[in-house]
Amino acid sequence: MTTADAFVHVFEPASAPGAPTVLLLHGTGADEHDLLPLGRALAPGAALLSPRGKVDEHGANRWFRRLREGVFDVDDLIARAAELAAFVTAATRAYDLDPGRIVATGFSNGANTAAALLLLHPDLLAGAVLLAAGAPLQDREPDPVDLSGTRVFLGSGETDPITTIDQARLLAAQLGERGAEVTAREHPGGHAVPPRVLADARRWWQGSAF
Ligand code: MLT
């Protein structure tokens, strides 16, 4: 059985009573500490659960293998998303968190992984902030799961050379077709998160009643 020890992680308890939990999923080459300030800024007072991706790509932490930039090992992604989902469930129990109020926030490889959790484990998350995300299953059509009641914010760069805007739009469509309430914010930049997009994400979070 998977336990909360399955991933190296940081856990910060909520400082506000009844606050949701932010599941933070870092980008390639970062670790469990990278997105803690983002989590605090987006959701002040929330609990933070921040694991470290287990795939080692020449010393860089990732969540799943890729064959080269932009080409994923989708079978590995599916297996690792299942392992991560089991960890989140175990940590939810271990830290006595509300399982209905887990909201993922990810950047790049972490955002792709959060998108995979939404599409493959539709009951795990109440919502997600996906920054520089594309369609994680690539040319495979995701199952027709029910994501109604799930709120998703996407921040995507129109000139992103790594996660193309077409991939981001495909993900937005896949989520929307499955009933998620999608807010898609496109910016003129590349593989980054401009301050205005963060400000929009923060406003979106405040209006989301997680
Ligand atoms: C990926 O998941 O590979 C991202 O889209 C790109 C990256 O993490 O470098």
UniProtKB/TrEMBL annotation:
Keywords attached to this entry: Hydrolase, Signal
Single GO molecular function: hydrolase activity
Phospholipase/carboxylesterase/thioesterase domain span: 14-202
Gene3D superfamilies: alpha/beta hydrolase
InterPro entries: AB_hydrolase_fold, Plant_Biomass_Hydrol_Est, PLipase/COase/thioEstase
Pfam annotation, one family: Abhydrolase_2
Protein name per the record: Phospholipase/carboxylesterase
Organism listed in the record: Nocardiopsis aegyptia
